[in-house]
């Protein structure tokens, strides 16, 4: 639910693959939450004769992981097997039919999960957002249900990103009120902070209303974007644990800078989740990075700058410790605070000093092998360096006060 651990779980689940002229990597980490409720899907070459197509998705569960896990295993089949989607098999698929088939798949799996839950004589109260992409030879179909988010980088900038489904959005609020609900503290009935999700059947019980007219709707928004072979770079799919602390442009710039120093996509994704942890995210974190042939490539000059930056930070940490004298060993928070007050050249855009915390910590521990440091204190410090992100979402205003449950998303 909404409780936090004493310190974050930083072990990561990773995967990578390639095919259909795509490469991908992913990373997921439990972080501060007492339970890991995220799930993901990555499939290159779809069933039913759709070998040139690929599908990727991130599911951000709340109030349990059951819905997220079920969707990661079965949503794709519900989409590709329904009659509305069959036009995807045509030589020139009808874009609107494909979009309709994706929506139908979401509605079908939601109803199927409700039936399964009722047969177990107890409604499953968990729910999950979903953000995904279905990539065909000609189009990228962005799919979003909730407040996880996907973006496309094209030509060196954010070209497209999905819109979060929040109860305070005018159209979402209108649907909620028409179903007899209310929006309080920017939540459905003062509790759930997303207005669209799979599962959450407690919010889908209004008689006389169809599935897309309930307090919480399982209907995704689907956007079709024509591919640009010359300019398409990469797609990022991530849960709100990432977006809580990084804006679209920040994450896009950070990923681009990492791709210039490594072609290991798992490593890039790991750096994203670690950086977001050190920027103050208290949620589960999952990110999928999908690269097109036009993605940034490793640049020797960028690699050199990165090595010089790491060496500079190592030297500065040694200097800071030595300047304290032999009798007083400064803690890691003091070292980071000192570095944060300085103008350090060539820090990764979007990640800044938080993205180099592991470098600082490694040299600190090497010089002070018997001194432990409180991760919680470190992250509280780094969070205080990013006051602006507290203004990006209503949840973040409550992170250090009321401990909202994940059921409150």
TrEMBL record:
It is a lipid-anchor. The keyword Cytoplasm applies. SUPFAM superfamilies: PP2C-like, Protein serine/threonine phosphatase 2C, C-terminal domain. Its EC number is 3.1.3.16. PROSITE patterns: PPM_1, PPM_2. CDD domains: PP2Cc. It catalyses: O-phospho-L-threonyl-[protein] + H2O = L-threonyl-[protein] + phosphate; O-phospho-L-seryl-[protein] + H2O = L-seryl-[protein] + phosphate. The keyword Plastid does not apply. Residues 23-292 form the PPM-type phosphatase domain. GO terms for molecular function: magnesium ion binding; manganese ion binding; protein serine/threonine phosphatase activity. Its cofactor is Mn(2+); Mg(2+). SMART domains: PP2Cc. Belongs to the PP2C family. Monomer. Interacts with PAK6. Interacts with the phosphorylated form of IKBKB/IKKB. This is Protein phosphatase 1B. It comes from Esox lucius.
């Amino acid at each position: 639910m909404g409780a936090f651990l004493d310190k974050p779980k930083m072990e990561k689940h990773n995967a990578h693959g390639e095919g259909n002229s795509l490469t991908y990597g992913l990373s997921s980490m439990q972080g501060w939450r007492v339970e890991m409720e995220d799930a993901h899907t990555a499939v290159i070459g779809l069933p039913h004769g759709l070998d040139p197509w690929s599908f990727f998705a991130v599911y951000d569960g709340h109030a349990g992981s059951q819905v997220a896990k079920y969707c990661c295993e079965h949503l794709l089949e519900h989409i590709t097997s329904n009659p509305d989607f069959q036009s995807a098999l045509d030589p020139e698929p009808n874009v609107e039919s494909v979009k309709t088939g994706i929506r139908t798949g979401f509605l079908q799996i939601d109803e199927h999960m409700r039936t399964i839950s009722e047969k177990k004589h107890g409604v499953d109260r968990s729910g999950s957002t979903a953000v995904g992409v279905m990539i065909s030879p000609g189009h990228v179909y962005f799919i979003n249900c909730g407040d996880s988010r996907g973006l496309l980088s094209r030509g060196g900038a954010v070209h497209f990103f999905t819109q979060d489904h929040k109860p305070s959005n005018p159209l979402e609020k209108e649907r909620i009120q028409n179903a007899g609900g209310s929006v309080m503290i920017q939540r459905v009935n003062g509790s759930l902070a997303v207005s669209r999700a799979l599962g959450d059947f407690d919010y889908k019980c209004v008689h006389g209303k169809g599935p897309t007219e309930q307090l919480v709707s399982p209907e995704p928004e689907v956007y079709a974007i024509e591919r640009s072979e010359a300019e398409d770079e990469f797609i990022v799919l991530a849960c709100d644990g990432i977006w809580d602390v990084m804006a679209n442009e920040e994450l896009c710039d950070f990923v681009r800078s990492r791709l210039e120093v490594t072609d290991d996509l798992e490593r890039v994704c790991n750096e994203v989740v670690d950086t977001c942890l050190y920027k103050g995210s208290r949620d589960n974190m999952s990110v999928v990075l999908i690269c097109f042939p036009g993605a940034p490539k490793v640049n020797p000059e960028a690699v050199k700058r990165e090595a010089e930056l790491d060496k500079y930070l190592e030297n500065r940490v040694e200097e800071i410790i030595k300047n304290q004298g032999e009798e007083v060993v400064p803690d890691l928070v003091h070292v980071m605070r000192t570095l944060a007050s300085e103008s350090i050249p060539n820090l990764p855009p979007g990640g800044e000093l938080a993205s180099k915390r592991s470098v600082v910590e490694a040299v600190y521990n090497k010089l002070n092998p018997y001194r432990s440091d409180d991760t919680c204190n470190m992250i509280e410090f780094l969070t205080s360096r990013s006051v602006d992100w507290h203004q990006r979402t209503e949840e973040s205003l409550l992170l250090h006060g009321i401990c909202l449950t994940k059921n409150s998303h």
